[in-house]
User: What shape does this take?
Amino acid sequence: MTPLSRRRVLALAGATAGAAMTGCGGRSSTPPARDWRPSTPLRIPPVLEPAQDPSGAKRVALSLQEGVHAFLPGKPTPTWGINGPILGPTVRLRRGSRVAVAVTNRLPELTTLHWHGLNVPAVFDGGPHQPIEPGATWRPTFTVDQPAATLWYHPHPHGSTALHVHRGLAGMLWIDDPATPAELPHRYGVDDVPLVLQDRTIGRDGQSLLTTEPNFGFMGTDMCVNATLQPFFTVTSRLVRFRLLNGSNARLYNLEFSDGRTFQVVGNDLGLLPAPVSTERLRLGPAERAEIVVPFGPGEAVTLLTRGGTERIDAGDHNILELRAAPTLAASAPLPGSLGGEAPLVPAPDATVRPFRLQGHDAINGREMDMARVDEVVTASTTEVWEIENTVYSHNFHIHGVSFTVLDVAGSPPPPWARGRRDTVHLPEKQSARLAVEFGPFADAVHPYMYHCHILRHEDAGMMGQYVVVRPGDESTTPRIIGAMATHPPGHSVPVTSTGPTVAGGARRP
Assistant: This one.
């Protein structure tokens, strides 16, 4: 098997639908399919490791700003970025640390910054209820209390998320945990490499065009990694750990290597697996993450690519990244048989069950998103079963503030590499999933968490709901209107430990 030929790319790519417009307003013509000529070294995002202040808190400063980035040499395009012209630094937080963040909005419009996968109180989640006006600074504070994981951060302004992410606002957030096996590759940018996958259409003049797929929004014909078009990476060790983030608006990636080699999946969205899982192919929907360890031999070259599938959001075969092994490679420790990842969640027989129907591209359970409405009330520190029914085309369902295990999709368990802890699940056309969902300890009847489709056009159009977490016994008395408890202290969030199922909202007992 070889990397995709120009003939195959031309046959599979087809014409790109939608407006030919850059993310910052300029216009450009849609280009033909591009020859695969990887000639640009992969850009590695800088690391932001927080400095400790006198109080012991770790301080993180992030600036959302306008910039200029050249996808094509000598042809810059206006972009947005975080502490730079496009994308953001890899923020590394250590488990157990107290963190104080300052997010300053230097953009010309309101935005937010959501910590996708981070277990924090809802008031610090960075969703649509925590807007940052132009010129303002948002200062969330929290303690990191979850295992090692590959997370990310991105904007979440209701109605504008797709455009803000397309313009370049996204970055990785890694949780470091001393309990992580030392044998895993861990040298940042050397054998532990971040890969932010995003599809774009780059015009002849270098502009990033707003090309769209009907029903799904922004999709492109050019695969970028860490905002690098047609990249290559020089491999210098026998084993390399790649941390994959699908940062695309809508694209589904069916990832494999051009020679069909086997690799090891060691982590899902929210952390390491209990043990490595061998596979030759990995599916990654919008917002999903995976950690893989890939073997290399001296002097070889292989291409990471995505294969077209049966869903419109995974149409076409595309090359992504060429990996070039040096003539001599450093030795790597063999992977451990046990990674220490959390076991799958097993709900109790009488666990609360909640049904959700995804309808069209803008409704859940027959209702579009309403910022003032509380859709569900759940009890802190409990585990429920969420049944997600997809009535139409592809969706990717994400829940803020939780960890879940996918029990089944279309009645079958997920493949072994997808059985770790997750926060996002892919739902093919007219298929359903059951999730065992574990809620955290932060009880707050005023500030909601979101659940929504992470195909960003769908999220912006209203395929989103919100829930609050409350103490045991408060379910039936919690207001269903945001702001109805005006006497609630600002930022109030009480850790709660509880056992046993509850029934609230549309939930039911099995």
